[in-house]
Amino acid sequence: MPDKRERILSSAEALIAQRGFHGISMQQVATRANVATGTIYRYFSDKETLLRCVHEERLRDAATAILQNVDAEEPSYAQFRQLWLNTMHYLQASPDSLCYRVQYEASPLFNREEERLMDERYFKPVHEFFECGRVKGLFRDLPAELLGFLALENLMLLIQKCTKGCIELNNDIYEQLLDASWNAILKR
Amino acid sequence: MPDKRERILSSAEALIAQRGFHGISMQQVATRANVATGTIYRYFSDKETLLRCVHEERLRDAATAILQNVDAEEPSYAQFRQLWLNTMHYLQASPDSLCYRVQYEASPLFNREEERLMDERYFKPVHEFFECGRVKGLFRDLPAELLGFLALENLMLLIQKCTKGCIELNNDIYEQLLDASWNAILKR
Amino acid sequence: MPDKRERILSSAEALIAQRGFHGISMQQVATRANVATGTIYRYFSDKETLLRCVHEERLRDAATAILQNVDAEEPSYAQFRQLWLNTMHYLQASPDSLCYRVQYEASPLFNREEERLMDERYFKPVHEFFECGRVKGLFRDLPAELLGFLALENLMLLIQKCTKGCIELNNDIYEQLLDASWNAILKR
Amino acid sequence: MPDKRERILSSAEALIAQRGFHGISMQQVATRANVATGTIYRYFSDKETLLRCVHEERLRDAATAILQNVDAEEPSYAQFRQLWLNTMHYLQASPDSLCYRVQYEASPLFNREEERLMDERYFKPVHEFFECGRVKGLFRDLPAELLGFLALENLMLLIQKCTKGCIELNNDIYEQLLDASWNAILKR
DNA sequence: GATGAATGAGAATTCATTCAT
DNA sequence: GATGAATGAATTCTCATTCAT
Predict the structure, then answer these.
(1) A97 or B130: whose pLDDT is higher?
(2) Hey, of D16, D116, D150, which one would you mutate to test binding to chain C, going by the most C CBs within 10 A of its CB?
C-alpha cells in the first residue's frame, strides 16, 4: 500500500474542510483513511506535523492552479489577467482550502521561516512576474510580495466573505475587481 | 470589583492572542481574570457565548478607532486618507484583535446574519462614505461593501503578514499603499 | 413571611416530582420558592436535610389521606375496604409522592431507625387495625407490619407500574385486587 | 483480560449497591474496575447506556434464577411454589440487584417500551404460567402481569424492607407468605 | 510495518455551600 | 434575617498518543 500517507493527508483535508480546523480528531482521520489510529503516527510524528503537511500540500496545489497557462512570453497584462483569474477560480473552487489556510496562518502553528521557504519554493514564478514588472517601471516600486499581495492575495479574504454569503459576485464585478487590482499596482 | 465581566472578557482576549483561538480553556481564562471557573458562567452562558462577546467587543472598538476624526464635511480624499490611516494604525496597534477576528470569521461560530447586523450597527458611517462616493461618480460602480473591502479590509491580511514578520513596512510604503488603495476604488 | 419554609418544601416537592430525585439543584428550589439561595440554608442545614423533610411531610400527608373516614367502630371488612380504597386513591392522585418515596427509600438517605419512628408516629392506627384483627384470629398470625404490607403497601409498586403505563386498571380490576388483598391476609 | 466489559459492569453494579443509583461517578466505576476512565467509553457510549446495560444484565440474571427448576409438566401449585421460593431466594441473595431495580424503574431512564420488550424476552415463561392458570380457571380472571405482580413482584418491596432491617423473616413466615400469595391469586 | 485497545490528562460545565453586604 | 454573587471541587466525556501483539 504505497498510498497510505496520501490517504491520511486527504482524509485530514476533507475532515478539516467539513468540520473546521479544530473539529477533527486523529481517530476520525484514521477511520476515514481506513487505517488504524497508530498508523498515522508512522507517517506523521504528531497532529501538528500532520496539519503542517496538509498546509504545504494545499499550498503546492494552489501554486499549481494559479500558475496554470501563465506564459512569461506574453505581455504583462495578459499574464496578470491569467494569474488573477486563476487565483479567483481556484479560491472559488476550493473554499475549504482557503478557510483552512486562513485559520492555519492565524494559528500558533504558523511559522514565519517555514512559510517563507514554502513561498519561495512554490510561488517563485509569481514573485518573479511582479519583480520583473517593477524593474521595468510598470509596477509601483514596492517589494514583489507586496505587489503580489495587493494584486492577488487579498482575494482570499474577499472570497471567504463570498463563501460565507456576505457578498455576491457576478461577471461584471469580476472585471471591475480585476481592473481595480491592476490599477492598484500600476505605477502612475 | 464591579468589573468582573470586563476582566473575564479581556483575559479571554489576551489568551486567545497568545495561544490562538482554540488554544484556551475556561480554566485559563478564569485564572487570568482572578475569578473562579464557575464565575465565568454567571456572565456568559457558555464558551461560545464568551467568544462571541469578545468578538463583538472588538468589532465595536475597531469601529470607534477607525472612525476617529473622520469628518463627513471634509473632501472625499481627506476622509479616505483618515479612514485608511486609522485602520492601519488600529490594526498595527492591536494585532491580536486582527488575529482574533480572522480566526473567528473562519470558525464555525461565525454567523452571517449576526455579522451583518453588527456591521450595520458599528460600521454604518464607513459604508455611507463609500456609498456616497459611488453615487457622486467618484468611486467605481460597486457595492459599498466591496469598495470598503478593496480600500480597507484587505489591510487585515496585510498587517497580519507584517505582524508575523513576513513583510516590513515603512512610511514611504504606507503612502504607496494608501495611493494604491485609492486608485483601486477610483472610477476611471 | 411566616411561610418561607413551607414554600421551600413545596418547591422541592414539585421539582422532584417533575424532574426526579436527583434532578434538582438548590438554585432551582430557591428560584421556584421565590427566595434567595442562601435562604434555604437558614431553614435546612443542607440538601440532605431538606430531602428528609420533604419525605416526612409526604409520609404525614399519606397517612392522613389513608386514614380518612376509617372508623374503628365499624366491622373489620368495612374498615379494610376503606383503608384499601383510600390507599389506592391517594397513590393514584399523587403518583409523584410515590415516585419520590420509592427513590428515597432505596437511597442512602434512608435510615431504618428514623423510618420506624415515623411509621410509628403517622401510621399507628393502621398497624393497630391489623394487630387487632390478628389477635381476634381474623387475620394470619403475622406481624402487623407484614399484614399491612401484604394488604396495602404492595399497592405502591403496582400503582407505580400503572403510572409508568405498564398496566391498565379499571373498576372491575379494583374489586378483584381488593378481594385478592383481603384473601391474602385472612386466616383460613 | 478479555472480560473488561464485564468488570466495568460489575463495578457499576457494586458501587450503585453501595452508594445509590445517583451516587456513582464514572471515575469510581473505572477505578474499581481497574481500567482508565476513557476505557469505559469504549464499551458504553455514555453513563446512561452503562446504567441501562446493568439493568438489562440484572434482569436477565433474575429471570434465570427465578425460572430455575420450574417444570411446566408439574402441577400448578408445585410450579408456583418453586417460582415463589426462587424469587424469594434470589431477592435475598442479591439485595443490591433489587435496590438497583427499584431505583432504575423510578428514574427518568426507565422506558416503558424497552421494559416491555425485556420482560417479554426474559420472563415469558413466567407470564405463560400465570396465563395458563387463568385460562384453566384456576387463577383470577386478571391479566397475567397482574397475577404475576400479586404473586411475585410485590416480594421486591418486602425484601427491600427486610434488607433495610424493618422486618425480620423466618421459615414459618415464609410459608405463610407463600400461602398468602397463593390465596391472593386463586379464583374462589 | 500495522493494528487498535487502552490510557489518562484535560476539557466544559454544574451545583452545594458560603459569606460579605 | 435575607440576599445572591462567588466559589471550586467534582462530574461527564474527549482525544492525542502509546505499545503489546
Answers:
(1) B130
(2) D150
C145/C128 same-domain check: yes
Number of H helices, E strands in chain C: 10, 0
Which among A108, A145, A157 has the least Cβ separation from residue B156?
A: A157
Contacts of D167 in chain C (CB under 8 A): 143, 145-146, 149
**pLDDT tens by residue, A80-103:** 999 999 999 998 888 777 778 877
Q: What tens digit of pLDDT does each residue of B55-88 get? A: 998 899 999 999 999 999 999 999 999 999 999 9
Residue A18 near chain B (CB below 8 Å): no
- CATH number of the domain that residue D39 is part of: 1.10.10.60
Q: How many CA atoms lie within 13 A of B51 on its CB side?
A: 23
Q: Are C33 and C117 part of one and the same domain? A: no
What residue numbers bound the domain in which D165 lies? 47-185
Residues A70 and A153 grouped into a single domain: yes
The reported pLDDT for the residue numbered A68 is 95
pLDDT at B90: 92
Contacts of D22 in chain C (CB under 8 A): 21-22, 107
Alpha helices by DSSP H, D24-170? 26-33, 37-43, 47-67, 76-93, 95-106, 112-135, 144-148, 155-163
Contacts (Cβ under 8 Å, ≥6 apart) of C38: none
**D166 and D150 in one domain?**
yes
**DSSP class per residue in B135-182:** HTTSB-SS-HHHHHIIIIITHHHHHHHHHTTS----HHHHHHHHHHHH
The number of distinct structural domains making up chain A is 2
Pair (C37, C79) in one structural domain:
no
Residue A153 has its nearest CB partner, among B102, B106, B157, at B157
- pLDDT surpassing 80 at residue B3: yes
Q: What is the mean pLDDT of chain D?
A: 88
Question: Is it the case that residue C7 has pLDDT exceeding 90?
Answer: yes
C97 or B74: which leads in pLDDT: B74
Q: Which range, of B133-137, C102-106, D82-86, averages the lowest pLDDT? A: C102-106
Q: Give just the sign of the alpha carbon dihedral A148, A154, A156, A162.
A: negative
- For residues B16 and B106, state if they share a domain: no
Note whether A105 and A119 are same-domain residues. Answer: yes
Average pLDDT (D156-168) is 78
DSSP for chain B? -TTHHHHHHHHHHHHHHHH-TTS--HHHHHHHHTS-HHHHHHH-SSHHHHHHHHHHHHHHHHHHHHHTT--TTS-HHHHHHHHHHHHHHHHHH-HHHHHHHHHHHHSTT--HHHHHHHHHHHHHHHHHHHHHHHHTTSB-SS-HHHHHIIIIITHHHHHHHHHTTS----HHHHHHHHHHHHHHHB--
Reduced to 3 states (helix: H, G, I; strand: E, B; else coil), residue D155 is helix
> Which residues, in sequence order, are bridge partners of residue A186?
A139
Residues of C in contact with D103 (CB under 8 A): 102-103, 106-107
| Those residues with Cβ within 8 angstroms of residue A27's Cβ, 6 or more apart along the chain or in another chain | A37
d(CA B76, CA C45): 71
| Domain of residue A90, CATH code | 1.10.357.10
Q: What are phi and psi of C91, to 5 degrees?
A: -65, -40
Over chain A, what is the mean pLDDT? Answer: 88
Residue B149: pLDDT band by 50, 70, 90 thresholds?
Answer: confident
Mean of the pLDDT values across residues B26-32? 95
User: Do B108 and B170 lie in a common domain?
Assistant: yes
Surface of B (115-174) touching A: CB under 8 A: 115-116, 140-143, 145-146, 149-150, 153-154, 156-158, 160-161, 164-167, 173
D46 touches strand F (CB under 7 A): yes
CA of D25 to C1' of E5 (A): 23
